[in-house]
Amino acid sequence: GAVVSQHPSRVICKSGTSVKIECRSLDFQATTMFWYRQFPKQSLMLMATSNEGSKATYEQGVEKDKFLINHASLTLSTLTVTSAHPEDSSFYICSADPGGLSGNTIYFGEGSWLTVV
Amino acid sequence: GENVEQHPSTLSVQEGDSAVIKCTYSDSASNYFPWYKQELGKRPQLIIDIRSNVGEKKDQRIAVTLNKTAKHFSLHITETQPEDSAVYFCAARLPGGYQKVTFGTGTKLQVIP
After folding, report:
1. What is the pLDDT of residues A11-48, one digit of tens each?
2. Does B34 contact A at CB distance below 8 Å?
3. Are residues B43 and A49, on separate chains, in Cβ contact within 8 Å?
């Protein structure tokens, strides 16, 4: 099946610094990847849709200058949380669409726990 | 945009009983409805999905039904086991690889041994 890898799985950073999270599709090419944020005991909140070779599409209320998304290749998308603050602490998870014969199925990365201290 | 509602938010069943989770969606153009199981701190795992040209799909103890007219779909788990305990999310997606997946609010299922 389609495999999506996310790194790092856990990261602790100081307030004011930036953190980069990588999302890779290991055995398929993904023109579209999605970034979600999940608070404890809540659903997945879509932050943005990452399109290879073009600018990401951000959901309403998500600051594009704070959550920088880059989709430079068909197998890699990155999310950079800039000037992180404690309220940015959360579980961030990406997903990717293999397209083609998979239909509309998307597959998730392992997720990244971000703690800002 | 698409809106997905999910009920109940929590569900407790005795081991061996059945569990049913229901979802409704708003956009009649949605044509793909996956169900994900998420254990604490882990990624959502696809457990079953259904497309709009099918009314029912079954995979061992798990089944999903879709009523396009009413715009609702349901997950049925039979002979529940303790390892079925998790949070389950339904979702809906419009056609097109660039389309986002809209998730329901989740159901925490507890199977009591």
Report:
1. 999 999 999 999 999 999 988 899 999 998 888 999 99
2. yes
3. no
